[in-house]
Every structure is written in C-alpha cells, then in structure tokens.
Amino acid sequence: MKKIQITKFFKITIGLSLLLGAGFVLAQTSTSTLSLVLDNNSLAADHDFNLFNDHLQLKVLANTFSQNVNLTIKQLADSEVFLPTDKKLISEIYQINLTQDQFINLPINLTINCQTSGDFTDGVYFLQAGDWLPVEKFSRQGGNKYSISLDTLPATVAIFELPSASYNFVKDQFKTQQEVKAGSFKIWLPAKGAATDIAVNINKVSDPATNTEQLVSPIFSYEAMGLNEARLAKYPLTVWFDYFVDNYYGKEIKYFSTTTQAWVPLRSSNDPANHKVAAKISLASATLGVFNKLATEEGVASWYAYKGCNCAASRTYAKGTKLKVTNLTNNKSVIVKINDVGPEIWTGRLVDLDKVAFKKLAATTQGLISVRVEKVK
C-alpha cells in the first residue's frame, strides 16, 4: 500500500502538479482544491492519501475504478453551503467528485478530523438535496477522527455536534415504542409509557457537574414532560449511549443526584463490541453519563482449541492467574486459569478462551462474544 503525505507547503502554491509515483498525479488547482489522477497502472493496489495538512485522509481501494480516474477534492467554506441551525459544525466541509462519468465497484474510504479534542463529538453527516443527513455507519478512529465509506459521488461530508433535541408525542403514538435521540444519546419510550401527550427535551451539558473522573461520554440531561414517576416505575425508560474509548474497563451509566450531589450508577448492559451501553431508569428527568468501571474489564472473547480445559490466553494477566469470565448476553460464567499469551493486539479482543471454557458460555458457532473479566482472589 502506498501512503502519500501532502504537507502544508503544498497548499500555498496555485496550479502546482506533483508526480507522486507510477500512475499518480496530484495537482493543487487552488488553495482549497486538489485534483488527483490515477491511471490504469495504479488501480490494482490500495492507496492512502493524507490531504489538507493531514485533516483529511482518503483511501482508494484496489479495483475501485474500471478505468483512469480523476478525483476532485475541495475544502468548502462555510458560506458555500447551507448549514443547519440545530447542529454545530466541528470539522472542515469536504466535497469529493469525479471529473467524468466513471464506474465505481467499491466504496471510497474517508477519515475526517474534527476540530474538538476528547471523545465528545457526535457524528458524520452528508449533504443531500439541501439537507444534512446522518451517516448511519461510521467508525471512530481515536479522539477526533471519523472514518466513513462513500458509495456514491459526488459527496459533501462534514462532522457536526447535535447538542439538543425536542420531541412531541400524542398518547396514541405509544401503541409502539418510540425513540428520541441527540447525538450519541438516545431514549426508548415504552409502548405503554404514556397516559397523556408528552414532550421530551434533551440537552448536551456543556458545564458538567463535579466529580466526573472516569467519564467517557458527553453528559446529557433529559426531561420527559407528561410522564409521572409512578407510571415510570412500572414502565421505565431505556437510555442508550454510544461511547468512543478503546480500553477494556467495564462501562456503566450513572445519573447525577441533586440530593446527594453525587453520581449514582444504574444497572447497565454494556456491548463492548459495538461501543454501546444501556440502562433502565424510572425518572422523568435526569442528567446522565457513561463512566469506566475500574474494578472490571469488558470486551470481546474468542475461542481456540488448545489444552481442552477451563483455561485461556491473556496479554494482561500472568500465567497461573484465575479469572471469572461472564457472558454479558446470558450472564453465564466460567472460572478459567491463564496458561497462554494472546490474543494478538491487532484483534482488539480481551481474552482467548479454550474451546471447553467457551462452550460453557455460548455455542462455538457464535465465534465471538462480549464478556466481563474479573480476577478471582
């Protein structure tokens, strides 16, 4: 794979063309526009390009195009496009286009840097018929990078925050479960959760409460007007967070108690494979966030045929250590002894169970399961 770095000095020269290697020409047609030409000789391999001072990474997969390709990548000014009033722009706006009609077999992959640090941004959007629509599938690459795949061109993409949202429902709508969301936070309203019309307001808290050590998400507050707590005790809300940290600590949702001025944990269900955590809550209003659980580790477990015993491989626990491994889906547990090193770091998995141990948690046909790991003293 070829990796091409376009440095800052290149941006200030108008009309300069750079021969990048066999089959590549990158031309700077203005301070905000790049033209990338790939010929047939280069289309059989994957290629990475770091553009606009490393703020945009573009990956062209092998055999994406059936013939020579000429891509135009433009950095748009805010004034060149319609910007929504309910979202905050936190990245540059990029437009990717083909200069002629060409057949595309595979998506083009983009990684966009946002302008905020930390793990509190919300999502990638694309412009279609004058509306900014959310990209449903994207991945988070560290603290301030998002990766997406473009299936069609031209495309205009940017990263936004959605700091607040308001919803209104009439009681007849609650024959089915309703969903409300803002950014990385959403609420499921139960099908039998309302006797009257209700309104739900969600706000991202920019000035969080005290004692937010181990916080790994934005803090959101919500208010569900029209839902009384007696009814919520019978039909609680389900709250969901997406979180964007790559550690193996357990995750739990906490609400901030105005009475004790402390964060109170909710019984939470973590999905570490998809970076999501959920909990039920019987409060009509609350302030919520996701926190690390330092006493436990949660992640993905795989299996392999090794010694035929209740044993496992770990990178972080020494051989001879005993661990309690719990399937987060069905709550089944097994005690294993570490007798091997693994899985490989690149897999992202927490533990590799012997086939015998894995079968006590799930069928081996599942391949991978989400687990909690606790050291047995």
| Percentage of residues in strands | over 45%
Task: Please identify, by name, the CATH architecture of the largest domain.
Answer: Sandwich
Structural class: mainly beta
Distance between the termini: 47 Å
Rg computed from alpha carbons, rounded to a whole number of angstroms? 25 Å
CATH fold descriptor of the largest domain: Chondroitinase Ac, Chain A, domain 3
Mean pLDDT, to the nearest integer, reads: 81
Could you describe the largest sheet, including whether it forms a barrel?
9 strands, antiparallel
The dominant shape is flat
Tally of contiguous helical segments: 3
- Estimate percent helicity: under 10%
- Number of extended strands: 31
Q: Into how many domains do the coordinates divide?
A: 3
Low-confidence stretches: 1-22
